């Protein structure tokens, strides 16, 4: 116990071992849904679902254990929501990029991310991009994955006359709606693990209506990760036409991770009077390194999870909490038979709820300033309407630059924005 207290500086950070353990368990319960949802999303790209379950658990374990043992932070990491949707729906399904190449794109974005983390370059780039666009990106991705969730539930379907329409209320759709309502009520009541509980109950209801088969066993050795392990194609990702997706992965991860780290650090009291976050450097390296490792193993961008705040609220302040969370992911490897039976309509409500959480960022936008609102609106709505996060990003940045140029408001523009704008234009044209 003395070793744990000394190594993780538990007493120094005014915490206790019991607080750290409970905080770590709470964080795991709050984000365990990713073990089910990530394979469900990525498998649509043609990747082996069993291997994805194993890799999701292992990538989450590795990223989180590094954050705990090396960075001494209670913040857990796992494949990011929104980024996995971008990987599947935009790259592999819409643009027909092979999933091996898509993994290469994620790998390169992680490498560039790691380079940008050196010397605080990443924070300087982040500070040069307007807050309104950062908020719009989060809101747009939220709307995009919520749209995917509605499609997965069978509520939104294709319609030749109107592009989209409402689907039939089949048994599975009704069960999915019940699951969505359960998650919403759990989240309103602030019950821990609400999303995971909703997925489990929806799956049980699927068994009741005869749509889901009961597994013959609960525990087993994890499926082999071989079908996707080390299958990334880095050389194929080195194409002019793929600069946009590489930038998009890097950009989204940039603000996703920084936003999570800043908000969680503030809750822990790790932001000093000058606004600097203590120990931020190691967490940034952990985030970038985990993305590289994750892509090598066979999953989309691994990033810091805001659900870590659930454990922090219970008193978690050190890496011991993250270590406990990491062990939760490791143990989950042996429950693959249960995870494998979860149907898509059980995970679809989770996409909607996560989308809602991301979309609420738009509440901080300045609705009275059209120069701010127009680019934000373009970003938010073109993501789901074009079924592409990268296209929404590109149109949003370009519209922001053009509006400020045409209104001679040059003080809101900078070299970084023009550089990003050039990449965005190249992405749209190539």
TrEMBL record:
<feature type="transmembrane region" description="Helical">
    <location>
        <begin position="169"/>
        <end position="188"/>
    </location>
</feature>
<feature type="transmembrane region" description="Helical">
    <location>
        <begin position="50"/>
        <end position="70"/>
    </location>
</feature>
<keyword id="KW-0812">Transmembrane</keyword>
<feature type="transmembrane region" description="Helical">
    <location>
        <begin position="314"/>
        <end position="335"/>
    </location>
</feature>
<protein>
    <recommendedName>
        <fullName>MFS transporter, AGZA family, xanthine/uracil permease</fullName>
    </recommendedName>
</protein>
<feature type="transmembrane region" description="Helical">
    <location>
        <begin position="99"/>
        <end position="121"/>
    </location>
</feature>
<feature type="transmembrane region" description="Helical">
    <location>
        <begin position="341"/>
        <end position="360"/>
    </location>
</feature>
<feature type="transmembrane region" description="Helical">
    <location>
        <begin position="413"/>
        <end position="429"/>
    </location>
</feature>
<feature type="transmembrane region" description="Helical">
    <location>
        <begin position="21"/>
        <end position="44"/>
    </location>
</feature>
<keyword id="KW-0472">Membrane</keyword>
<dbReference type="InterPro" id="IPR026033">
    <property type="entry name" value="Azg-like_bact_archaea"/>
</dbReference>
<keyword id="KW-1133">Transmembrane helix</keyword>
<keyword id="KW-0813">Transport</keyword>
<comment type="similarity">
    <text>Belongs to the nucleobase:cation symporter-2 (NCS2) (TC 2.A.40) family. Azg-like subfamily.</text>
</comment>
<dbReference type="InterPro" id="IPR006043">
    <property type="entry name" value="NCS2"/>
</dbReference>
<keyword id="KW-1003">Cell membrane</keyword>
<feature type="transmembrane region" description="Helical">
    <location>
        <begin position="234"/>
        <end position="255"/>
    </location>
</feature>
<feature type="transmembrane region" description="Helical">
    <location>
        <begin position="372"/>
        <end position="401"/>
    </location>
</feature>
<dbReference type="Pfam" id="PF00860">
    <property type="entry name" value="Xan_ur_permease"/>
</dbReference>
<feature type="transmembrane region" description="Helical">
    <location>
        <begin position="195"/>
        <end position="214"/>
    </location>
</feature>
<dbReference type="InterPro" id="IPR045018">
    <property type="entry name" value="Azg-like"/>
</dbReference>
<feature type="transmembrane region" description="Helical">
    <location>
        <begin position="133"/>
        <end position="157"/>
    </location>
</feature>
